[in-house]
Structures are given as C-alpha cells and as structure tokens.
Amino acid sequence: MKGWMGKIKALALLSSLALFLSGCGKDNLTALVPKGYGSEVSFNLIILTTVVMTFVFLAVIITYVIVLLRFRKKKGQEDFIPKQVEGNQTLETIWTVIPIILVIIMAVPTVIHSFTLSDTSEADEHINIDVTGNQYWWHFDYKDEGFQTSQDLYIPQGERVYLNMIASDVTHSFWVPSISGKMDVNVDNENTMYIEAYEEGVYWGKCAELCGPSHSLMDFKVIVVSPEEYDQWIADMKDVDPEAEPESAVAQEGKELFEENNCMGCHAIGSSPAQVGPNLTNFGDRTKFAGFLDPTKENLVDWIMDPESIKPGNKMTGNYPDLSEDEADKIAEYLMQLQPSEVTPDSAGGLK
Amino acid sequence: MSHDHSLNPETMPQDPEKATLEGKNKFMGLWFFLGGEAVLFASLFGTYLALRNSTADGPASDEIFGLGLVFVMTMLLLTSSLTSVYAMYHMKNNDYSKMVLWLGITALLGVGFLACEIYEFAHYITEYGFTFRSSAFGSAFYTLVGFHGGHVLFGLCWVISLLIRNAKRGLNLYNAPKFNTFSLYWHFIDVIWVFIFTVVYLMGKVG
Amino acid sequence: MSVTATQKRSVGAVLWDYLTTIDHKKIAHLYLIGGGFFFILGGLEAVIIRIQLIKPENDFISAGFYNEMITMHGTTMIFLAAMPILLGLMNAIMPLQIGARDVSFPFLNSLGFWLFMFGGLLLNCSWFLGGAPDAGWTSYASLAIDSPGHGVDFYVAGLQIAGAGTLMGGINFLATIVNMRAPGMTYMRMPLFAWATFITSVLILFAFPALTVNLFLLMFDRMFGSAFFDVALGGNTIIWQHLFWIFGHPEVYILILPLFGLFSDVFSTFSKKRLFGYTAMVFATMLIAFLGFMVWAHHMFTVGLGPVANSIFAIATMAIAVPTGIKIFNWLATMWGGSITINSAMLWALGFIPSFTIGGMTGVMLGSAVADYQYHDTYFVIAHFHYVIVGGTVFGIFCGLHYWWPVMFGRILHEGMGKLTFWTFFIGFHMTFFIQHFLGLMGMPRRYWVFLEDQGLDLGNLISTIGAFFMSFAVIVFIINIFYTAAKGERPSPDPYDGRTLEWATASSPPPHYNFAQLPLTRGLDPLWIEKMEGNGKMTPAEPLGDIHMPNGSILPFLMSLGFFIAGFGFIYQVDHSAWYLALYGGMAFALGCMVVRSFKDDHGHHIPKEELEREAD
Fold it and tell me: What is the arithmetic mean of pLDDT over B11-18?
C-alpha cells in the first residue's frame, strides 16, 4: 500500500515536472516567464513561497512515510496495545515555532511589495491611460494625447504606464500575466495600477473576473514597442483624418454603408469620447478581431453578419440593420484598410 | 418530571424558566440565536455606514430626520424593556396575574413604538419623497430600520400569542421558559434600537 | 433486537415515519440522502464542465449554459452537498459521542433539514424554469444585477431558505453540547469530532447571518427596486464582496473543521493510541475558527483595497498555517508508535494527509498578496480550493461514511469496493487538480467557457478531464457498494473497530432510538477505551434504569418548509405578475400558520416505560 502511495506521488511529481520543463506555457501569456516589473515581483514571491512550502511538505511526507513503514500492525502482534502518549511539549513547541518563523520569512517581502506595487505617487510623471472594461471589449483612452483606441494597448518598452481603470457595466479584471499581475476593474471606483514591460513584443491579456457568457473571449493584447516607435505611433494616431476617403472603390462603398447604417452611433473612427462600442481608428492593425479571431476578411464578414454566434451576449447583436453578405464584405474592406500608423503589432514582432 | 407542570409557592423552584432541561435548552438556544442576530444587524449597520452619504441627490439624513419623534420612540422602547423586567420579576415570584399585566404593558408600549415608526416612514415618503428606491442611502436606511421594526412586530406577535395561549392556564414549568425567552429577545431588540438611535439618527443629524 | 423493529413495514409507513421524524439518527439519514443526491447532481455538473474543457474551443455546451453549470456546480457542492452531508454526520454521531439521547431542539432539527431540502429543490427548479443562476457561486453583485431572467432570483430564494435551515442546525448543536453531555463528559473529555461540531456550529452561527443580509440586499435590488448595488443611485457593489466573504471564508472552515475532528478520531482509533496533544488540537481548532473570521479580504486582494488592508489580511492568512501545521504534525505523532490498521476508512484518512497538505501549502502561497495578483481568479485557485475541499472535505466525508456506516445503518460497507473507490478517486483527484496549478500560472483564468488553441493549455486540460472520469468511476463504485451493502452487507457488532468513544458503546448496531437505556458515566478522554483497559468492556451506567422521556414526531417542519418553498416562487415571480403575490403571501401565511399551530399545541413528548426498556435489553 505505502509503496503504491509513494509511486503515485512520484509519478504525479515527475509528470508535472516533465510538463514544467517542456515549457512553462506560451511565452507571451504565461506568468512563469516574467517579462515585466509586476510579474517579476510576483514571480519572485511565488518562487520564495513555493520553496518554503516545499520544505514543509517534505517534512510532512518524510514523517508520513516513516510512520507508514514502521508502525503498521504486525502479524502475530494483533493484541499489541501501544503506549498511550498524551503529548510532548518540546515537539509541539518545535512545530509551532518553526512555522511561525517560516510565515515571517514569507510575510516580510509580501508586505514590502504590496506597498511598492500600489505606489502611485509618481503617476503624474508618467504615461497615464484610462482603461474601461466593457462586456466584452476593452477601451483605452490616451487622455494626455487626446485619442482613443480599443482592444490593442500600445505602450513603450521600459517605461512605467499608469492605468486608471473602471468598468462601464459589470466588474472585469485586467490581467496580462507576462507583464503584471491582475487588478479588478470595478464599476464603483477607479483603480490605478502601473505596468512596465522589459521586452518588446505582443502580449496576451485576459479578463479574469466572470463578466457574462463571453467572459472567456474578452481577450486583448498589450503591444510593447520601442520608445521611438511609441512616439511615432502617438503622432500618427493624433494625426488621423477620420474623413479620409479610402483608395479602393470597394472600400469607399464600404465607408458609405458604414455611415448609412449608422455604425458610427457606437463605433468612432478618430477621436471620440463616446465609447458605446470599440473605437475603430486603427482597426486595420488589430492583432485579432473581436479579441480572438484571426484578422482575416472572412472572419470579419462573419462577425458583422452574426456576432452573436461568435461572442454570445455581446451588445452589438440586434443593434444595427440586417446586412447582406455583399454589404458586410464592403464594410469589412473599408475597416481593414484603416491603418493610420506605420507602427503596427509587427513592429513589436507580431502576435505569436 | 411529572405531567402536571403547575406550580404553587411550595414547589416553586428558584428559576422556573431554567428548572427543566427544555427550559435550559430554550434559554441557551435563544442566547445563541441572539448571537446570530447580532451578526445580522452588524452586517446591516456596516452596509448602512457605507451608504449613508450615497444620497444620489435625493434627501440627505440631516434634512429629514427629526430627533423629537425618535426620542419618543426610544423612550417607549426603553420603558418596554423595563416593564418586561418587572414581568420576569413577578414570574419568579409566581405572581401570574401581575406578570401578565406587565407583559401587557410591554406589548402596548411596543405597539406605540411601531405606530410611531410607521408614522415616521409615512412622513418621509409623503413629505420628502424619500423612499426605499430613492437612493442607496434610502435603501440602506429603510432596510436597517425596517428590519428592526420587523423584529418588533415579530416580538409583539410572539408575546400576544403567549398571552392568549396561556390566558387560562397560569404559570407552570412548561410555559415559564417561553415567557423568559420572549423577555430576553425583547431586551435584544431594545439594545439594537439604542445602536440605531446613535448610528442612524444622532450621527445622521450631527455627524 | 426488538420485535417491532424487525417487522416489515409498508412503504407508506416508512415514508410517513421519515417525513415526521425528529430522531436525530433518522434526520441524519435524511441529510445523507438529500446531500448525496445533490452531490451526484453537482458531480454531473462537474463532469459536463470538464467535458467542455477537454479540448480547445470546444462547443459541447453553449457559453450561457456553461456559466449556469459552473454556478450550480459550486453552489450545489458547497451548500447542498458538502454542508448537508456534514450536518448528517454530526447529527448521527455527535449526540452519541457526548452520551445524549437526543438533541436540544429535535423539532428545529427536523425543520432545519426540510428547509435545506426545499431550498435546494427550489434552487434546482431553475433548470426547468428558464435557466439556472449564471453569475458564479459567488454571484458578485454587478454581474448578478446584470444577469437577465430569473436564474439569480432562484439563487437568492433557494439559498435564503437553505441557509435558514443550516443556521437552525448550528444553534441546535450548540445548545445540545452545552446542555446535554452525559454525566462526567466534561468539555475536555469530548471526542474531537464533538469539539469540531461545536466550533463549526459557532462558525455557522456567526457567518450565516452575513449571507442572509447579503441575499436580502440582492433580493431587494433585483425584485423590489432598491439601490444597494446600483452605482447610478450611489450603490456600491464592493459591499456584496465584503459581506459575501465575511460569510464565505468562515464557510470554508465550516466545511473542513468537522473533518479535522473526524480524522482525529479515526487516526486515534486505527492507531490504537490516544490523540497526541489533545489540548493543542482543541485550541488549534478554536484558533483556526477565530482566524477564519479575520481573513475574508484575502479573496479581494485584487479589488484595490490598498496596501495596508492587503498586508494585514495577507499576514492573518499566513498565520492560519500555524495551527493547521500543529494539527498535521499531531496526527502524524498520533500514528507514530501506534499499531496502524489500514482499512478503507483509514485509507481515506491517510490519503487526506498529503492531499490536504498540498492544499494548505498553496493556501499560504495564495495568502501572499503580491503573488496572489497572479494566482487570483485563475485555475491555480481552482486547484487550491479543490485540494482543500475535495482533498479535505470529500475525503473526510468518505472516511466518515466508511467509519460510521455501522453506527448509522447497522451494516459494514464492503472493504474491497471501499478500497477500489479510494484508489480510483485518489488517482483521479490528483490527476484532475494537480495540473490545474500550472494551467493557472500559464495564463488560464477560471470560469472560462473555452480556452483558445495554441496557448499551451491543451494537454493540461485533457489530463484534468481524464482525471475527472476516474473520480466519476469511483463514485459509481461507491454507489454500487451502498446498494450491495444494503442487500448483503455484513451485520457488525456495535463496536467493530475496537472503538474508543461513546458512539461505539451502544447496545445494538444501529443504536436504539433512545440511544442509551441508561446514560453512560464518562471517566476520562476516550471513555470506552478506559473501560476496556480496566477490563469492564462496557460503560458504567450513570443512572438507574427508569422511564425515558422522548419528544414526539411532527409533520409541521415539512409543512412549514413547503410554505416557504411556495413563498419562494411568489418572491421570484411577483416581478412578472402581481398574481404571484398570492403565492408569496399564501406560502408565508401557511408557514406562519404552522408556527402558530406548533405554539398553541402543547407537546410534552412521551415516555418509554422502564418495562419496555428491560424487555428490549433481553
């Protein structure tokens, strides 16, 4: 029996170890390969607590195995009555004091970093972006620059970015595991957190608080570009002419359809504080459509035709006139050519 | 234990309400129940404190509260607590009719309190348009004070049922614990009111 | 065995007996049946969840239905399966352990059960009436207010009714332990399970009212237009989170402490040693319970409460590891130097130690607020609390069922099937949940209907799902074992395990309905063991044989609960049509009417005459 138990434990540990070594998950998603300040601080504590706790676990398991090996009822001694020990003060003191010490070892860094991570006293000297969580998309307002975007959050590498977050409908939670731990996006009050990415790249972001049927599809990306590219992107975004006529004829028709069907009632192109639906200014540069679909025209047409089947419970369904596939195709053509900046996700290496 | 639970001054135990196992259980059970009730009201107080300034441009506490009526209500309820003590005193002396008298007075005072509260609520609604739905403050106020009022109402139903049921039976070891638990409950209601008076009305008017 | 007990009775008579029973042992049966039913239901929901997550972007069930599944799985398992089964074990065993003939409030005891049962049924009616609640078992206010349909209304009404029942159960156990211990049974001679019942009941008493209030607030907001959680009118949804966790964290200790008590008894019995460090164990339990009320905000580290609150709650959370560690080491020390018998009951207890230790470890890790920014609301948390609730509570429940089956049903469960259940469940459990720690850290948040392709989450989820099938198989074997045992199980003596405490000192298995013809005299910790060691073999009576006073059964608890059940529908549907007020007021009036009947009809109970006791003893 005890051999069994040991084998199973060993097997479980081995297989998990194998899995662990085969990769700690996807490079731009996992919390186990930190690529930013917040995730690094958290990761260090994860390692510290894991090591301390593994030590405790070993102490328990070794005692446990010895007990099972030595003190099973023995053949021929069925009537053996063990000594009825009441307790042992020394032992009991030991296993009270050691855990207290271990707890202190873990508590001190926890407290210190609780304070460093929530310190927003220098927010004014850095980039501030207002984040709004909506069912099921993210709105980013670069309020110092005076423009907005959605779903793809551009930040410069190596700089602190303060995010002031609030939700418009229900509670969400902003999580980019590779760069930082999460913070809730409440409906009641604005929460501020800062993120700082060490490396350029496109990182997956997830909503981590149940917010309705499409909670699992409320993905977004953080696009970390070099500071120069970031400045370029800011300049391009400020410079957008929302009225610019598309070059191709199909896209021009698409633009007309976009206006005729009052898509702008919800979706702004160019700067607009209104945010009923995602801002589409740089839609053509999106890493994904609707947060998780490959950015192909087919997917976009499917989305425009029937968003409900793709993202159940979204707020777009039923709020615009029925469109023929041809019309949807033209609108898609228009939207996909909205590429106001040279700086795109590809500048950061693209989404992997 | 005999089937005849009636008492006479000779067989009267020291504490008739705790002379039987049932009595002891009721006594202990009610104390535990009040412990739970304390948490219930603590949660309501916490909610009220969090929301008492969330008036959403509706009436605020210092505009509407009048301490005069609330003071009368406090006096009514405090006095009723005292009269229920008298009732228990007479129960221990095996004086059934006086116990009934004092419990009757307790109930009357409770009815008076409740009438004032109903008047107060009606006043807020008609005069200020301040309702349960006006603002988070309104919801929290009516819920906290209303829960207390509901407890008073329940206590009244309880004591009246007891008085009717035992009108012709006199005191015995079966019903003594019942009267006693009611009295304990009534004190608890009173204590909660003291907190409401302080936290809701005084702090609302002054704080 | 008495003649009457062996007579065949009609199904109707048995049914009526159970509907009206106020015998704590029969109420225990009801709790086990009710809780067992919901356990299977919750298990099916879990399997459906795992099938949905067997591969990326699966479309086995729809997104909305998935949210209903996770909500109902959590709610059912915690409120309708684990808690009732625990209340069942407490009901069955605790009065015997303290040498009582019944509980303090037999009527309330029955009422508590029926409220739970009708509350649970009301909640589950939602499946057939337009959809179950879908805002998660925590039902955070902003989403719960936003949720369309009546699902969340069923959550509110069902839990309100079931919660009231649980509160009654808690008060009843407290008064019982204070007032009804047998002669000589001082507090510090009580078995650990009785102690755990006492402390758990305190937790129930102080935790459930917070849930009651919270449910009222949500009910008022959803059904009567108040503005507690309506931000536009000044409401605040964080209040829900605070009140929910002020209830919710003690709740997890309500789920685990009884099992700590049970495991203490089991380790002691099967090692043939008295519990190591009894006093420390009692005080550790108290300390855990006390700290359990001080740590609720560790569920809210990411809410933005600020670094001061986060630090305080982080330290308090880690501090719980100390008394829990004391317990684990005391259990090991109890077995150290003992003569350990391993049967299916003991296997569950042995399986518990490593499993629960892992759950405790990850608990401390989660307590580190800064690390929690990564763990929070991911599969790491799912893994953690399943290690605690399955590895602790469910293992404990299985352990208790195997251990006390003879006391409760007069049969002994089949050993072979018991061991098969354990091993498949144990392997399946670790397969399902160990991997989830890593899934969480690799970026999989909890409550995700689908996970996307090519995010490195496929293999882990597949393994996890396969593990769930193993656990399902184990439960099926256990159900077969129950039926097999009922038909062909061995009839044990009243003391099949060489027990140490009073539940093994009854005259028959199962015990007669009055438990002890003469109350036993307790002379120390492990009273039965003391008598055995001194060669008496059975308890010394503390009183001469005499008439026994027992309470009368009643159908009123069932009817009252039915009234509240009907009123529940009234509350839920009055928003649609005012005709439903009829159900609301009608149900309430019916329940209150039953209360009046109860008050106005004197019930002095009945006496079992001495002669009958003597006859039965022969």
Answer: 78
3-state secondary structure (DSSP) of residue A127: strand
Of A4, A24, A82, the CB nearest to C273: A82
Q: What is the pLDDT of residue B3?
A: 43
Q: Phi, psi (5° rounding) for residue C579? A: -60, -25
CA distance C338 to B151: 56
- Nearest-10 crossing angle of helices C151-179, C63-75: 10
Average pLDDT over residues A115-132: 93
Per residue in A311-333, pLDDT tens? 999 999 999 999 999 999 999 99
The answer on pLDDT for A2 being more than 70 is no
C-alpha count within 13 angstroms, C-beta hemisphere, residue B148: 31
CA distances from C566 to A54, C220, C522, C576 (A): 53, 19, 47, 16
The pLDDT > 90 percentage for chain A reads 79
Binning pLDDT at 50, 70 and 90, where does residue A10 land?
low
Q: What is the pLDDT of residue C537?
A: 83
**Domain ranges across chain A:** 2-16+24-117, 125-352
CB contact under 8 A, C337 and A83: yes
Q: How far apart are CA C68 and CA C73, in angstroms?
A: 8
Q: What is the ipTM of this complex?
A: 0.94
Q: Is there a domain that residue C442 lies in?
A: yes
Q: Please, what's the b/e burial string for A159-178 (b: 16 or more CB within 10 A of its CB; e: otherwise)?
A: ebbbbbbbbebbbbbbbbbb
In a domain, C521, yes or no: yes
Choose the mutation target among C229, C310, C373, C500 for the interface with A, i.e. most A CBs under 10 Å.
Answer: C373
- According to CATH, what is the number of the domain A2-16+24-117? 1.10.287
pTM value is 0.94
User: Is B8's pLDDT higher than 70?
Assistant: no
In a domain, C587, yes or no: no
Average pLDDT on A220-234 reads: 96
Kindly tell me the number of DSSP H helices and DSSP E strands found in chain C.
23, 2
List chain B residues with CB under 8 Å of C179: 21, 24-25, 28
C-alpha–C-alpha distance, residues C452 and C458, integer Å: 9
C561 assigned to some structural domain: no
Q: Give the end-to-end CA distance of chain B in Å, rounded to a whole number.
A: 57
Looking at the structure of chain C, the number of domains it has is 1
pLDDT for the residue A13: 64
A98: which 2 tokens?
């050691």
Cα separation of the two ends of chain A: 47
pLDDT value of residue C4: 44
Give the fold, CATH level 3, of A125-352. Answer: Immunoglobulin-like (2.60.40)
**Residue of chain C nearest B34, judged by CA positions:** C205
Residues 6 or more apart whose Cβ sits within 8 Å of residue A224 = A155, A156, A157, A179, A197, A199, A200, A201, A202, A203, A348
- Domain assignment of residue C283, given as a range: 3-554+603-617
Kindly list the residues from chain A whose CB atom is less than 8 angstroms away from the CB atom of residue C318: 103, 106-107, 110
Tokens for B103, please give them.
């419990």
Q: Write out chain A residues lying below 8 Å of C500, CB-based.
A: none
Using the Cβ of A89 and the Cβ atoms of chain C, whether some distance falls under 8 Å is answered with: no
Alpha-carbon distance B165 to nearest alpha carbon in chain C (angstroms): 6
Choose the closest CB to B40 out of C213, C230, C242: C213
b/e sequence A278-305, b meaning 16+ C-beta within 10 Å: bbbbbbbbbbbbbbbbebeeebbbbbbb
The token pair at A61 is 């398991």
Q: Tally C-beta pairs within 8 A across B and C.
A: 123
Give me the residues of chain C with pLDDT under 70, please.
1-8, 618
CATH numbers and ranges of domains, chain B = 67-205 (1.20.120.80)
A342 touches chain C (CB under 8 A): no
In chain A, which residues have their Cβ closer than 8 Å to the Cβ of C367?
110
